[in-house]
């Protein structure tokens, strides 16, 4: 049985209805943490997750619709959050965009277009900034907290068609370091968790998914793809007292693939 080590704490994670975000919701809820998360379109899926974690773990869960291509609307979401929760301890920026929004941002270098690249920057860096700013205002009221941006080893290892995402993951990791330097005086730690290719719906949408999967398995000393749950341990660690002197860092969880 998992110990309720986060009872009385509250997590807010963006993009909590599938993949890595959903795994994070369950990992924190299992440890007694109340959870708030955002969704893009599927309110029914969000409601199902809320009902499931509340019944299984006896915690409070709420979900809010958010378009991360409109980061300023984070402020409206936090107004709703404040009606449901009286504290915020952890914020994890996880949501990503895919589909038409990344046209011109996902592809070979010679096909990249400013609009697609700018959309990825908005959803990756701008959304992190606004979400973390609003989180920090609330964390300061309760004596501090932990902020995490999910990142990707696509900014360390060449991945076909990933230039737009990879460069913006590098940018958000730099933003994490700046945030850590300035928020430390408020007892707020800021770090990033960088995953190697993780077997999620987002990755399966890649046209070269099978090629990527095969290459990851070949490169990894552990001979397997990463699963969403493989990233939750680092998030739990970064939100615990065990990492109380760790800030401004990126933890790479890649199955050993970046060394190959």
Automatic annotation (TrEMBL):
It comes from the Bacteria. InterPro entries: NAD(P)-bd_dom_sf, SDR_fam. Keywords: Oxidoreductase. GO terms for molecular function: oxidoreductase activity. Pfam families: adh_short_C2. The keyword Oxidoreductase applies. Belongs to the short-chain dehydrogenases/reductases (SDR) family. This is Short-chain dehydrogenase/reductase SDR. It comes from Sulfurimonas denitrificans (strain ATCC 33889 / DSM 1251). The lineage of its organism: Bacteria, Pseudomonadati, Campylobacterota, Epsilonproteobacteria, Campylobacterales.
């Amino acid at each position: 049985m998992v110990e309720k080590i986060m009872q009385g704490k509250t997590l807010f994670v963006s993009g909590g209805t599938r993949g890595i975000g959903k795994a994070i919701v369950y990992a924190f809820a299992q440890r007694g943490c109340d959870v708030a998360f955002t969704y893009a379109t599927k309110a029914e899926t969000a409601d199902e997750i809320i009902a499931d974690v509340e019944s299984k773990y006896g915690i409070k869960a709420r979900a809010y619709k958010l378009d991360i291509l409109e980061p300023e609307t984070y402020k409206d979401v936090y107004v709703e959050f404040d009606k449901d929760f009286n504290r915020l301890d952890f914020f994890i920026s996880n949501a990503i965009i895919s589909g038409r929004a990344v046209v011109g941002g996902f592809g070979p270098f010679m096909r990249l277009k400013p609009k697609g690249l700018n959309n990825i920057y908005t959803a990756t860096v701008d959304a992190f900034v606004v979400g973390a700013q609003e989180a920090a205002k609330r964390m300061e009221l309760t004596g501090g907290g932990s902020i995490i941006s999910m990142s990707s080893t696509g900014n360390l290892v060449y991945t076909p068609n990933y230039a737009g995402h990879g460069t913006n993951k590098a940018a958000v990791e730099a933003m994490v370091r700046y945030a850590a330097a300035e928020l430390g005086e408020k007892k707020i730690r800021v770090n990033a968790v960088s995953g190697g290719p993780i077997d999620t719906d987002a990755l399966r949408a890649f046209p070269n998914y099978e090629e990527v999967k095969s290459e990851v398995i070949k490169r990894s000393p552990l001979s397997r793809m990463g699963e969403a749950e493989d990233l939750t341990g680092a998030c739990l660690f970064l939100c615990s007292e065990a990492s109380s002197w760790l800030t401004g860092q990126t933890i790479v969880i890649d199955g050993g693939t970046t060394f190959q």
